[in-house]
Design brief:
The complex is a heterodimer of chains A (116) and B (112).
Chain A lengths: L3 E4 L2 E4 L5 E7 L5 E7 L6 E8 L2 E4 L6 E3 L9 E3 L8 E8 L11 E2 L3 E5 L1
Parallel strand pairs in A: 2-11
Antiparallel strand pairs in A: 1-3, 3-8, 4-5, 4-9, 5-6, 7-8, 9-10, 9-11
Chain B lengths: L3 E3 L4 E4 L4 E7 L6 E7 L5 E7 L4 E3 L2 E6 L4 E6 L8 E8 L8 E3 L3 E6 L1
Parallel strand pairs in B: 2-11
Antiparallel strand pairs in B: 1-3, 3-8, 4-5, 4-9, 6-7, 7-8, 9-10, 9-11
Classes of the chains: A mainly beta (116), B mainly beta (112).
Chain lengths: 116, 112
């Protein structure tokens, strides 16, 4: 099992450009998440999905979009990149059984994005 | 007040030392609690869950005090490989969706 795979690992964008961060998991997890981590800050949830076709906003969704057409894939789209989106982005997945309050998060290795 | 608060450290300790980290949380309705470990420029990984009765995994002991709303992590006999940032994570559990709130982390440096 590869686990959670994110691409690209590094990217430099110019202000106003757009890009998509790819995330795929091969563990058949129902939940998937996108977080961002800024220096000295905790991970902040951008978007999450509880299953294919279902997505919802997290704490800091502005400037981002997601889709979940399959169980495996959960891409994050940045439209009109801004310097404030310079961050490390982590995709994660977990498996929650009905009635189970929580499950371990498995993270990808992260994508370091710089917007200049 | 931050939802999950940790002392950022760094905690500098020699090998073999015992070190303890605390974490406080603001939402009294929080359901479950975890410690994640994050190595420099790497992704977080689950270290251990924290149960009401306290739990131990080798050199690591986690405890929960619901009345005072804090969680602790004790590391005994520190190893060089324990050097990392330890993230306190609280599940605020919002109607079927696990709302995980991460602390900013406590950095541990273990020296020879």
């Amino acid at each position: 099992n590869a686990g959670v795979t994110q691409t690209p690992k590094f990217r430099i964008l110019k202000i106003g450009q757009s890009m998509t961060l790819q995330c795929t998991q091969d563990m058949n997890h129902n939940y998937m998440y996108w977080y961002r981590q800024d220096p000295g800050m905790g991970l902040k949830l951008i978007y999450y999905s509880v299953g294919a076709g279902i997505t919802d906003k997290g704490e800091v969704p502005n400037g981002y979009n997601v889709s979940r057409s399959t169980t495996e894939d959960f891409p994050l789209r940045l439209e009109l990149a801004a310097p404030s989106q310079t961050s490390v982005y982590f995709c994660a997945s977990s498996y929650l059984r009905p009635g189970t309050p929580t499950g371990e998060l498995f993270f990808g290795e992260g994508s370091r994005l710089t917007v200049l | 007040r931050k939802e999950v608060e940790q002392d950022p450290g760094p905690f500098n300790v020699p090998e073999g030392a015992t070190v303890a980290f605390n974490c406080t949380y603001s939402n009294s309705a929080s359901q479950s609690f975890f410690w994640y470990r994050q190595d420099c420029r790497k992704e977080p990984k689950l270290l251990m869950s924290v149960y009401s009765s306290g739990n131990e995994d080798g050199r690591f002991t986690a405890q929960l005090n619901r009345a005072s709303q804090y969680i602790s992590l004790l590391i005994r006999d520190s190893k060089l490989s324990d050097s990392a940032t330890y993230l306190c994570v609280v599940n605020e559990m919002n109607t079927g969706f696990q709302k995980l709130v991460f602390g900013t982390g406590t950095r541990l440096l273990v020296s020879p």
